[in-house]
Design goal:
It holds the Pfam family adh_short_C2. This protein is of the alpha/beta class. The chain has one domain: NAD(P)-binding Rossmann-like Domain (Rossmann fold, 3-Layer(aba) Sandwich), CATH 3.40.50.720. It is 47% helix and 15% strand. Helix 1 links the parallel strand 1 and strand 2.
């Protein structure tokens, strides 16, 4: 078996209907993994991902769940375990968004909490309910999605988003130590400017072009390039990596 092989692995990816989550699902399927495609509102695109995975010869299902809600997160994990015949080998906590740009002195508590819930609480809730399966297996991989914003505080009006993503990195480090005795590796990806619907919604073409001038590679990254890092962390080539954050940003931050 090649070390980049994921044949037979059962994977749960939150927010997998679009963007980076979608790219990770497709790349994993190309390597033989079977995928649970979680979505909240993007049903049509999630079904497209499932169909694409089937064409690649892997199995997939889509499961709707708002993973900011514990009962729905628990149900999602239970359905994923059923799909995997009792196993969940890889979890990718990809669900998250900026929600909206807002200065701190103009922000109410409900917006602050919403940003924390969608970016941080989602990872906690899904991970909490996946852990018993991985402990029973005595193996597993968990990949959390952070952001370049965790290092630089984010752009205008994005402080809560940046804060939540920095917390994801701390969560990753602590969890890596907590789960190491069970052979569960926990790592993080921190994308920079990636060509996704996220930046279509929360950025402008002018600002994106200006940002690219400060990136050593002088371009935006693709979702597939983030997915490549996820492949590394999920296969045998990543078997001695845990508690780490891989920066996928074209060199704009060299940590």
């Amino acid at each position: 078996m090649h070390k980049f092989d994921l044949k037979g692995k059962k994977v749960l990816i939150t927010g997998a209907g679009t963007g980076i989550g979608r790219a990770v699902a497709i790349e994993f399927a190309k390597l033989g993994a079977d995928i649970v495609v979680n979505y909240n509102a993007s049903r049509e695109t999630a079904e497209e991902v499932v169909n694409e995975i089937h064409k690649l010869g892997s199995q997939a299902i889509s499961v709707q769940a708002d993973v900011t809600q514990e009962e729905q997160a628990k149900r999602l994990v239970e359905e994923a375990a059923k799909f995997g015949n009792g196993e969940i080998n890889i979890l990718v906590n990809n669900a998250g968004t900026l929600v909206q740009r807002c200065k701190i002195d103009e922000m109410d508590l409900s917006l602050w909490n919403k940003v924390m819930d969608v970016n941080l609480t989602t990872a906690f809730l899904v991970t909490k309910h996946v852990i018993p399966y991985m402990k029973k297996q005595n193996s597993g991989r968990i990949i959390n999605l952070s952001s370049l914003a965790a290092h630089d505080g984010g752009g205008p009006g994005a402080i809560p988003y940046a804060t939540s993503k920095a917390a994801v990195q701390a969560f990753t480090k602590g969890l890596a130590k907590e789960l190491a005795p069970y052979n569960v590796l926990v790592n993080c990806l921190a994308p920079g400017l990636i060509t996704t619907r996220f930046h279509d919604q929360y950025n402008t073409p002018e600002n994106r072009a200006k940002t690219c001038q400060n990136i050593p590679l002088k371009r935006e990254g693709s979702p597939e390039e983030v997915a490549g890092a996820a492949v590394l962390l999920s296969t045998e080539y990543g078997s001695y990596i845990t508690g780490e954050t891989i920066e996928v940003n074209g060199g704009v931050l060299m940590d």
